[in-house]
Structure formats: structure tokens, C-alpha cells
What does this fold into?
Amino acid sequence: MDTLLRSPAASRAEALVERVADAPVLPLGQGAEPGAEAAPPPVKEPSRALALSDVIAVRSGPGEALIRLAYRIGIPGHAIAAPFRRPQAVRVTATVESPNRGDRMAGTALRAGHFLIHGVRLPIASFDFSVSAHHAPGVERVVHSFAWLADLAASAPRADGAAVAERIAGLWLHGHGAPGKGPAWEPELAGLRLVAWLVHAPLMLGGNDKTLKSRLLAAIAATAGWLDKRAPKEPAGLGQVAAWAGVVAAGLLLPHGKPRRLFGEAGLVTALGDMVGEDGGVLSRCPAAQLDAIRLLTDLLACYDAAEVTPPPALGVMRELLVPPLLALRHGDGALGSWQGQGAIPADRVNAVIEASGVRTRPLASAAGWGYSRIKAGETLLQFDTAPPPRAKHARTGCASTLAFELSDGPQRIIVNCGGAALAGGQVPARIGQGLRATAAFSSLVLDNANSTAVLLHGQLGKGVETVEFDRRQIARPGPSSNRREATRIEAAHNGYAGRFGLTHQRILTLSGDGTELAGEDILVPASKNGKRGKIGFAIRFHLGRGVEVQLSPDKRGASLLLPDGRLWQFRLGGDRGEAGEITLHAEDSLWVDGEGRPHATEQLVIEGLAQRSGGQFSWRFKKTG
It folds into this structure.
């Protein structure tokens, strides 16, 4: 098997560009053919590891390079762009028409006097906008990034929304006058906020309060200046990309902006290369971050259109690279799987962002760098986490989910992960947010109730899984060749329990060519030649989709799973009772968090027992029977 180490920050851009150039183009939402999914085309390996900027660098002559250098060392933009003229007053020089659309329901709630965030209504009149206020991370993100402006714009004509935008902006400015203080000045939120202000400038600046308009323009200029200094210092990730995007947007839409734009473009292209792994997935491994990155690039490219400036080719290429991995995490209902703390982001939100991007492509079958493998056969779709969790410096809401999987049959989800840790503090109680990041909240194997990777506070991760061995192949099923359809087998193993318990967890999943049968095998292998003595407790958890009714068989070695639309699947433990030893199958309560942040009571199947420290093997099977 090939060993997957966590990707370095630099992307393998040469291979990425070739993949995009060769990828077949499909209409929006169209996936693989109805039958077994074809093997992905081979991708040429680059001769060396390249950053995106090595392949699609920002092209500039000596004059532009000198301008960029002058701005970087602190010479004001107006002194470079127009050295013999007075600096122009701050204003937004063009009107941006972004194809991105907000949530009309959330915008209607704003006009009614409250934020609607993860299903929770927060009255604007009593909301604490002060620097010292502590809100749930999801609330802070929406409010301080001004993401709500897109929602407001989607809910009403500009004239009707301007007064609401003025009101909230005035309250926010009163609490955040000085740059750099409080959570609102996280570089990611500051960059997103500046882009939102500039994209929705007619809504922000279109009211009747002239004093507030002056304050807003001053805040735009101050934020751009603060990001000029902060963006180069930000570590790799979406935060750095958002900070540089704010710099570039200001360079495009504020007077004397060319020096700032050239400075920002160089930083942005490098940051994009550092944010993305070898298959186009962000290094946080978070689908919400992937979605945010696509949306941000769409807004930024709209700023280029408004300013009538040709963007660097890297921006369009990167947006095309980000889409296929995201599509791989869509289930049959169009919504995303629950990975790295996110809920099942709904189909309409995903489709809106993809449609706005204009990118039409297939889902990526196996994103080795991003770490999610996808198998589609018939109407059945499998998502499998086959990589280590993100490194601490990249994690947003890091989860110990290695070797977990999700399974769906058409629009019905059979096996899921709980999800929703990043939404804790809304309808998901904050006290359970940490538990939703644990291995037990995912459909995987747990040893001794311990996480495969340590789950720390504030979304961070500690020691645990460092490497994952991975192999994917097609297997011919026995029988006449005319009736034979190849099954897809994925084998992966992680070392997260090797240091503590001396065991490596190996999981083998085989999905039949017609999608009616998933065979699984969880194997515990001694990490060293001299295995330890004794036994250790284990649990293999299968969290069931919302609305799935479970009924255990009389012998307690199987279960019937009735899906909400009447489809029937059977689950069965492998081996006979004597071979299985002290192993039980039972059902327990669970929960699943949807894309709106609402928790739903569900159930889970649990295989539980004691395994030998010298190793063990546990097989199981899901089969569609109706």
C-alpha cells in the first residue's frame, strides 16, 4: 500500500493544472454514470513539488515589480500611483455584481430585527457588539465577517435593505472602532469583512446617514491598511487567503489602488498554493472551508470584472481545482457529508456556490491529498476518510475521524457521522461540542473509549494519527463474465493507537458493482513483532441516518434497517458466535446535526467487546434487500 503522509503546505500545482485541463465537463449536478463508477484517469506526476505560484506565477515586468517592492516597504499607494497629485478621498470606484447569492430567509429575519444563525434568532437590539463580548464561534463568524450583507441583499431591493445595513453597521462600528482588538479582527474575518463591504458597497453606503457613510469609508480604508501589514504574517490557510483577498479587493476598488493590488496579488497567489493540497482540497480538510474558499474567489473575480482589470490566471484555475473535491462529498440528496465539525451543508447552499462559480466538472473519486475517497455504484454512494486529521495549524474544528465512513442510497442516508461540532453554541448545546469531535461521534472503530487523535480545546488536535496507508483497487466478482460487475475495494490503516495500545487499525471496505452490498472488515494488527498480552475494549460504531428504523434480529447478530422511503437494508456480523467470542451487537441513542445546525435524535448500531492485545479481526456486511 502507498503511505499517505500529511501534505506539505505547497500544492502539487503542475499535476493539478493537468487534471483540470483534462477533466470531462458535465452539466451542474451531474455525477458519474448510474452504474459502477469508472476509475479516475491517471494523473501525471510532477517532476518535483511545485507551489502554485511556480506554475502560474503573477506575470509582471520590471515596472510592476518595482511598484510592488515600493508598496511592500511602506511607500503610500497614492505616492506611487500619482506622485504629483493630491491623494483622492476614500470612495468605492466601481459597483460589483457578484453572482453569489445569500440566504433569503436569513435576510428576511434581519429586516424583522434579528440575526438568524444556525437556526437561532438573536435580536439585533440586544446583541452585544462590544470587543469584550463572547459569542459562539459561528455567531462571531457571521456577524463580524458581515456575511449577513449577502443575505440582506437577497431578501429585498437595495432601498429597503439600506436602513437595516446602516443600523447594524453603526452598532458594529461603535463597538469596534480601533483595528486589531477582539475576535472581529481575526485576519480571516477582517479580510472577509472588507470584501463584503466592497462587494455590497451600494447597500452599505446607500443610506441617508452621511456621517455613518464617512465612518464606513474610514473603516474600509483603515481595515485595508491593517491587512496590508497583517496578511504577510498570517500562517497558511483560509485566514491568510481571506486577508490577501481583502487587500486585492481594496486595491481594485479604492483610489490609487494599483500598487496595493499588485502587492496583494503576489501574496494571494502564494497563499492559495499554501492553502490547498495536492488534489485541490484545503489543508483544514473541512468542506465548509472549501465552500468558503470557492465563494470568496467568486466574489473577488467579480471585483476584477467591476474594475475592468484582468485577474491573474491563478485565481480562475484555483477555483476550478477547488470544486471537484467538494463535489465528491455530496450525497445523493445533494447535501455534503458531515466531516471535520460541519453539519450536512444543504444542497441548495452547495448548488448556489457551485453555480455562481461557473465551474462544471465531475466529482473527484479519490482525493488522496484531501483524504476523502468516494465510491459510487448504482444509487449507493460511499465516502471514506482515508487520511490523518489536519495538522493543528490548519484545523478549524479538528475531529478524530480517521477511517470513518458515510453511506447513502439515493437521497437516503444510511450511515452518517454526527457532525455539528463547529455549530456548537447555536441549537447544538456548547457543552457537547467537544464530544462531537471525538472518534466515537464518527462511524469508525474506537479502542478503550479513546480518540484516535487527541481532541484539544478551541478546535485544535494533539497527538495521534500521523500516517495512513491506503490502497484502492477494482475486484472482479465470481460468476459468468456476462453478469460480472467489478467491485471496488479500499483498504486503509492508521497508527493512531499504536503508541498507546500497540495496535494499528486497518479497515477494508468493498462495495459491490451494483451498489447493493458493502462488506467491511476491521482488523487490529500489532504495531511491533512482540504483541502485548491481555485484552482491550473496543467498539465499532455505525451512526444511522435520520429516520432510519432499526430492529435487531433475534440472535443479536444482525439488524434490519428501514429507510424513510421504504428501502430496506440488512446488517450482519461476520463469523459464527464462537469465533466472535465476547462480542455483542446492540442499538444506542445517537444524534445527527443537519446543515442548519439543528440536532436530530437518531440511533446507532454498536459492535462491542474485548479484543486480544495480540490483534483481532471483525467482519460485517450491509446488504440491500428491498
Summary: Confidence is low (pLDDT under 50) at residues 2-53. DSSP finds 18 helices and 20 strands in the chain. Residues 533 and 613 are 5 Å apart (CA to CA). The longest helix spans residues 210-230.
